[in-house]
């Protein structure tokens, strides 16, 4: 995720959550926080061009649409998924699974010992996806969500060697079923800007 992505990300955020993040929160996560690893999921479509342009060898233009986003914080060996959402029109296509798998892969790259997230107790669809990736509920957080005081499940995925090996097999299967390119998991995070004189 870059600053140029924040407008699209904020739009999806407002459509997905009753209490969305502010634009300045995304700006901070991208430019100032050493612990944040933000990602966007793009759908890229090759645009049609007239025959004569193809004949001349012009490169076909690509339209880029941000269809989802996510973020995690890596602190003290724990990767904490802070947010994840797919545009409402794109749900049910497996894009949320791609985002989740990318963030788990990034957590492994960062050598985190576990991945943690919170999910509404009423959100069965998300819980099913998290359980598919071997997240387990470790505790209930009472009245966690401010908009309606709903409880949350705190779910953990422990990244010991066997769990990581199972994830890698699941990740390879996902790439086969839904081919995508992953620039997020392996590319180093850009350095944060420093405030002050030094």
CATH class: Alpha Beta
Amino-to-carboxy terminus distance: 26 Å
Helix content: 25-40%
Quickly give the structural class. alpha+beta
Mean pLDDT across residues: 90
Number of helices: 6
Query: How many E strands?
Result: 6
Strand order of the largest sheet: 1-2-3-4-6-5
Domains counted in the coordinates: how many? Answer: 1
The poorly predicted ranges are none
Largest sheet: 6 strands, mixed
Return the CATH architecture.
3-Layer(aba) Sandwich
Strand/helix succession: HHEHEEHEHEEH
Shape: globular
Name the beta content range.
Answer: 25-35%
- Say what the CATH topology is: Aminopeptidase
- Return Rg in Å: 18 Å
How are the SSEs ordered, and which strands pair?
Blueprint: H1 6-16, H2 23-31, E1 36-46, H3 51-55, E2 62-75, E3 78-86, H4 95-109, E4 114-120, H5 124-132, E5 136-141, E6 152-158, H6 161-177
Parallel strand pairs: 3-4
Antiparallel strand pairs: 1-2, 2-3, 4-6, 5-6
Provide an overview of this structure.
- The chain is an alpha+beta fold.
- It has a single domain, classed as 3-Layer(aba) Sandwich (Aminopeptidase).
- The protein contains six helices and six strands; from the N terminus they run ααβαββαβαββα.
- The protein has a six-stranded mixed beta sheet with strand order 1-2-3-4-6-5, sandwiched between helices.
- α4 runs antiparallel to α6 (161-177).
- The relative contact order is 0.13.
- The mean pLDDT is 90.
